[in-house]
Amino acid sequence: MASLKMMLAGVAVMATRASAQETDDMGPAAFLWPEDRVWQGDWDNRGPCGSVAEPHNRTEFPMQSGQVALVAQDDSYDITLSISYSDDPQSNDDFETLIDAEHMRELDPGHVCVNLLDAPSSVSAGDNATIQIRYTAQFDNPQNETFYACADIVWVDVAHFTGVVPCFNATDPEAGDADWYHDPNNEDDDEEDDDDEDDDDDDDASSGSDGALESNGDENSSNDNNGSGSGLSGGAIAGIVVGSLAGVGLIAAAGLFVYRRKQQRLRALRQQHSSRGVDWEAQPG
């Protein structure tokens, strides 16, 4: 049992370090979800999508409360998230900004979840779109370069969305400031940090928003009050996802351990009944 516990503990440690492993099938950063287009090293500095691949394998994306999961294997800076409502965008001019670089100054190695504003009223279920990430990094050259990646989606009503978003935050704690990202749905939270422990100030924190952000904030507040939203905070969802992933890893490790022990016993039995397992010195004649 001691060896099993040590193995399970090792699996848990490896799971927390997985984000630090570099891969050669992506640039400094990419979409973890929705699925992005095939990465090509000689195209990742070319807009709008850093790939010659055409839109394919569109991921169903909810029209409300949408999120994207980003993964980075190197420090990335001035990240901009944009979207095109064209079936096949051909240039950066086809995209409009969702979150600008002022809100995403730095992306540390690891995984991170980003909340998006709801789809505009002009969008209907079944419409196509492409989400773009644009950022700068020092990847294979000593100087900063601009990189691109795109993920193709198809809009679905949130009531019909059945996908599971692998959305959690797990960045390298030694790579930089943890507060690199500011949720556009909660811009006023930074102004009310001193009052976070006072529940009576929640309404005041949301009253300073304007434009689309104010509308979205009001909708989120309404959903929280009437119970029509997801009912889970971002931290709770992240905890569930990380817990589920860790649980799957531990179960798999335990299964592998049991399987290997069984195979060892079977090999021992086979050896006892084979010529190699016979004690020839004890045989008569």
Automatic annotation (TrEMBL):
Principal localisation: membrane
Q: What CDD domains does the record point to?
A: LPMO_auxiliary-like, TM_EGFR-like
Upper taxonomic classification of the species? Answer: Eukaryota, Fungi, Dikarya, Ascomycota, Pezizomycotina
Q: Which UniProt keywords apply?
A: Cell membrane, Glycoprotein, GPI-anchor, Lipoprotein, Membrane, Signal, Transmembrane, Transmembrane helix
Q: What is this protein called?
A: Copper acquisition factor BIM1-like domain-containing protein
- Establish whether keyword Hydrolase is in the entry: no
Q: Where is this region: Disordered?
A: 173-228
Keyword DNA damage among UniProt keywords: no
Pfam families in alphabetical order: BIM1-like_dom
In its UniProt entry, the species of origin is given as Stachybotrys chlorohalonatus (strain IBT 40285)
For bias kind Acidic residues, which ranges apply? 186-205
